[in-house]
Amino acid sequence: MSDTKKQEQASTHKIGIYLWIWGLLFVLSFFSYLVDWYQFQGLLRWSLILLFMFLKAGLIMAFFMHLFWERYALVNVLLWPMTAIGCFIFLMVAEFEYTVFTRLFYFVVGGQ
Amino acid sequence: MSDPKIEGYEFKPGFKGMAKDTGSDQTMFKGVHWGKAMMWIFLLSDTFIFSCFLISYMKGRGSTLIDWPNPSEVFALHVGGVDVPLLLIAIMTFVLITSSGTMALAVKYGYEKNRKMCGWLILATAIGGLTFVGMQAFEWSKLIEEGVRPWENPFGAKQFGSFFFMITGFHGTHVSIGVIFLFIYAYKTFKGHYDEEKRGWFTTIKGNYVEIEILGLYWHFVDLVWVFIFAFFYLW
Amino acid sequence: MSDEYENKKGYQAQSSETISSGSGGGGSGTVSDADYVRPSEVPEQDLYHGHSFITKWIFCQDAKVIGVQYFLLATFTGIIGLILSWLMRLQLGFPEAAGFMTAEHYYQFVTMHGMIMVVYFLTALFLGGFGNYLIPLMVGARDMVFPYLNMVSFWMFFIAVGVLLASFFVPGGPTGAGWTLYPPQTILEGTPGSGMGILLMCISLILFVAGFTMGGLNYLITVLQARTRGMTLMRMPLTVWGIFTATVLAMLAFPALLVGSLMMSLDKILGTSFFMPTILQAGEVLEYGGGSPILFQHLFWFFGHPEVYIVALPAFGIISDLISVHARKNIFGYRMMVWAIVVIGALSFFVWAHHMYVSGMNPWFGFFFATTTLIIAIPTAMKVYNWVLTLWRGNIRLNVVMLWCLGFIVTFVNGGITGIFLGNVTVDVPLSDTYFVIAHFHMVMGIAPLMVIMGAVYHWFPLVAGRFLDETLGKWHFWLTFLGAYSIYFPMHYLGFIGVPRRYFEMYDSPYVTSAVGMNEFISMAAFIVGAAQLILIYNIVRTLKIGKPAGHNPWQANSLEWLTPSVPPEHGNWGEKLPVVHRWPYDFSVPGAKEDFITQTTPPSEVAGTEVEKT
Hints:
The complex is a heterotrimer. Chain A is mostly helical.
């Protein structure tokens, strides 16, 4: 079973890569904490929050959950359904803006 | 990682490989254990649950006319005479990431059949998870003391309390379930159940170190969800 | 990651040398290159075989038994739903005869009828019943991949049904908010069942979702990871494709229902205000405030629209197989059919708010959702054309199964076309909440899938029980149901056009009365007859179990694997010693040059060398 042996070694990753990702996650979390610490506001705050969030999520999925090493068949099956979520988010943003508009219009302005 | 070896099947890389895998017989995810495939699909479904929670939260927060409390102040901790914003949450985040790292290493050592190391790392993960749940309990009791309830909230919009308790509660439930399983798996690892392929609980499926990876997927997912909750609930 | 798992598990269980032709072949000793199928990579499953009555028939891990259990329980709840609809029709057609019924009762019956039929009857029956029975057999697996989880799934469903039915007996009765459960009225006083009723409904739905998730994981992984040798995705019968895609939809859509139910229960129990705006009731401002009722509608329909296709897609798949077998012709455009199923499934997540045109959502949404909704008509129409083209110049056997198939096509086209009316905002607004809508969705997702279920029962009963159902009784059953269903729902279109609103307990002295009364009586009469006609099927089944004609192996001369098991009905483990090896798609009917008019999936190419068989 020398074949098996060889594969085992190939299938596990060097410990370094995990430690690197681990370190990066700490750093990114710290950065996203700093966003709050320095009280950035507006577009800058949002873009930074989302940037760090997606970086962290991506690192966890890609390396800790091994998605980076999985075959595309699995990766695609997992990622495509997110378009439905994306659509849902996009539409609900439009929806809450409209709700605020109607509430302001009828309750505050008085519907005139 | 190299592709698994399957008799009579030649792997192709990238999208060509995807097309070939999808078009082949027997399995679509080549070399992926049934349990692991199941966990992935389950997590996909769970992602939709958490997404629905967070989307509802976004809709609720976005459309309220009463001011939303500033999370940076609400979740501040009073340390040494100054209010440090989000301190507890930051520590919780670090704890959860730490436990995620130990879990990743546990999976690695599991595949290397390093029983001891794998077991200790799972145990460390479990303790990390337990710490997280403990800190969340502390955070909850602090907020409840300050008068925040699911149905009301002295700082502003009612929905703040509702969404906070519901979403962190649901996430905390996930963590707690994970912690229970981590302890069980640590026990099973130390006992050597995965080395001798003992039959698992409830099922007729024989145990194997791949189960550690399946549990790992769940645990990383819990961490992943926290990344989103941290960004949307605490930093927004 | 799991390399060593494979190596350990002995993927070489059947090496390439041991290939022999499957059950269809003559077992020639030599294997030609054309017959080569690569060796097995899926580990042999060790199954738990029940040995007592309880482990064999009650807490059973055999997918086929679980399928039958699902089927029976779903049918039982379906019959309750049917009785509720009778009561509703009694009130609408003959109010003086329904003196025992108050308006509250009527709303409760409407609600429970809707919820039972959509979720606990059709979904459970198609995915739980047909899915469990057919998926392992059709893809050539010994069982579902997680038999234990599968068993738990059924018993969760059992508890969910129990909780649902328990709500009939709690103070206040079941919820009467309409099956869509729209807040805020769902949990406000004055709505029937706003106390325990709605709570039990939410709990029951949550249990159903949890149980279904377990089952759904099983179906998906069995289809994706446990097919037999030679069974590629594009060689699967369309039945499996339909059930598979529907399960994907369910796994992604039910979360929204779960979240909605959970938040609604919290609104009820804890008094949170997720869905509850500031409300003035009887001059008093309630505790609630600031919530968003429309959020629930979005969550509900994000589940609710895929739910329509969760019911429809298995029906599409099953009907394709039935038509192909009984018209002795390959399904027209198999690949197109598969892609149509997948595209319909994917699109169904982008159309949900067409149920909400009059809800007061962002007005721009009407444009977006009307567009996406009408796009769905394209793959759906493709499917209808392909069914018709499959029939065209086929060698049609006009038996009961084929009658149900034809009935389905007609009904589905009918319901589909009214769907195009309702998908357009400007047409929908006046028709919203009228009987036109009732007629539309009953045609398209009530009667049409029901026709498929009936056809499937007549088709697969010889497999499940080993005996044919009686044809003459079957024809009576079909014609009564078909003509009766049309008598019910055709006039409803007219009622909708003259503006009769749905969910009204009675019409009082409204101007509709003159023309609506007579028609309501007629519809009610038809409903009683159609409901009673279903007794014919029950009688037929009971009779057949005793004195039916034995079916034997492969009675319909079908190609797909479920008919090729060594024993009929198939036993636990399905395949005896050896798993089948698949060489072709399941639609090789009437191939020119072949000895018989069908070539089973397990027939190796060398045996049909001289024919014009397609390469699949």
